[in-house]
Amino acid sequence: MMQSFYGSTACYLFKDDKILFIKFSEKWGQIYASPVGKIDDNETPTECIIREFKEEKGIFSRA
């Protein structure tokens, strides 16, 4: 049985003693988590984090 592996990222954004979490109520019901994601082909971990923040919260939209 062949297994597939892929890279992923998780990032915690801290500001003023607070941490950004996203409420994923539609996907998993009342779950809070940091923006995470699978690293796409030819994408660095940093690029993946920025893309996930854009997709999930619209953060870094001026990058």
Give the structure's gist in a few sentences.
The chain is of the alpha+beta class.
Distance between the termini: 42 Å
**SS content category:** alpha+beta
Number of helices: 2
N-to-C SSE series? EEEEHEEH
Main β-sheet, spatial strand arrangement: 1-6
Rounded to the nearest angstrom, the radius of gyration is 13 Å
SSE blueprint:
Layout: E1 8-10, E2 14-15, E3 18-19, E4 22-23, H1 25-28, E5 32-33, E6 36-38, H2 45-57
Structure description:
The chain is an alpha+beta fold and 63 residues long. β2 and β3 form a beta hairpin. The mean pLDDT is 81. It is 27% helix and 22% strand. The protein is globular. The longest helix is centred in the last third of the chain and has 13 residues. The strands form three sheets. Strands 1-6 form a two-stranded antiparallel ribbon. The chain contains two helices and six strands, in the order ββββαββα.
Main attributes of the structure:
27% helix; 63 residues; 2 helices; two-stranded antiparallel sheet
